[in-house]
Amino acid sequence: MNAGPATGRPSTKERIVTAGAELFRRQGYTGTGLKQIVAAADAPFGSVYHFFPGGKEQLGAEVVRTSGAAYGRLFTAAMEAAPDPVTGVRDFFAGAARTLVETGYADACPIATLALEVASTNEPLRQATAEVFTGWITLGTAAFAAAGIGARPARELTIVLLAALEGAFVLARALRSTEPLEAAGESVAARASALLGSPDAGRG
Amino acid sequence: MNAGPATGRPSTKERIVTAGAELFRRQGYTGTGLKQIVAAADAPFGSVYHFFPGGKEQLGAEVVRTSGAAYGRLFTAAMEAAPDPVTGVRDFFAGAARTLVETGYADACPIATLALEVASTNEPLRQATAEVFTGWITLGTAAFAAAGIGARPARELTIVLLAALEGAFVLARALRSTEPLEAAGESVAARASALLGSPDAGRG
DNA sequence: GTCTATATCTCGATAGAC
DNA sequence: GTCTATCGAGATATAGAC
């Protein structure tokens, strides 16, 4: 029932979700054990099944939803802080690159590794990742539409943005280089600029 | 020593690598057991350690290299079969979408799931994936350069292509939709077309 | 509710018969 | 070189004391 106080140590459940999110993101779902999660969360093993009777799968679903929503807010914040959508896109990719370098190329997309692992093996978790991606598409489409791009090209631009970002993360983590993020970010910014600069294309 | 005859049943080693490639691609590296691999390959368990003394990690590295090279040849073949690079890009994305649907959204990139899993957890395998991606970048850069695009924009276009493809795979498998591949493919084709259509941009 | 101990299973890896 | 049996470790999950 306790949603956690505004200050002080987070609740046991919150610590488990946070630790799970970090470990799933870096090591994947099957590559992370529940024992490792409770150790990182400084929580007793039984707490996992107390808060998540559905076990690892239920914890995974909650982690996907929680970190997916947080990452969506990060995108929205970047777009709202920027003077225009093109700058917003550039800032978002630049911020992602900065985080990647600062974490030793560990922290990229919070759910991508898990998403690929479960896509063909765990239907409930696959659905959780699909809901997060769908939410991001809705979010981005709304942001670009608010900037004057038509609904259909705004959706297509968002999907291209997400694909370029996710793929750049794959390449960047493997190559240990930010070059893919820079190239992908420029590519998406250019496309956004074209859609904003030519209202006819933006309506197409 | 036996490299395998031109016809007949593939060698035990070949069957293990093939089965490993399919399972790692669909379920990931940590999510696939050696016992599952030898069962799929119809091989005895001990054969894994006979052919791969380094165990699972050595098998993983060989799978990454083998399937990475095969996928590179697939890209080259698509580009060579097409009348121009823009058509080649469209055909390649369309073929990827077709394969994805035919396999129930299982077979996308042969190494992406493993690449994300090992990027922060297994340095030898991370290097193997990096070598494959580097090889693909070299391959694509050469193909676009041969079509008349300058070396630097050809490299950037290749990286954008790979990022868009990999990210579209992530979204497509999670959403069970080919929309991301279509949007990403069109986006990359448009960029390739722009670089080919304006030699000045192509030289920049 | 919190936490410990344990049951059951599967993992990667090895030893050794044939 | 092929194949089986088994090892110890670690996985998820559960039972039950406190």
Automatic annotation (TrEMBL), chains A, B:
PROSITE patterns: HTH_TETR_2. It comes from the Bacteria. Pfam families: TetR_C_13_2, TetR_N. InterPro entries: Homeodomain-like_sf (IPR009057), HTH_TetR (IPR001647), Tet_transcr_reg_TetR-rel_C_sf (IPR036271), YxaF_TetR_C (IPR054156). Residues 33-52 bind DNA. Residues 10-70 form the HTH tetR-type domain. Keywords: DNA-binding, Transcription, Transcription regulation. The keyword Cell cycle does not apply. This is AcrR family transcriptional regulator. It comes from Nonomuraea roseoviolacea subsp. carminata. The lineage of its organism: Bacteria, Bacillati, Actinomycetota, Actinomycetes, Streptosporangiales.
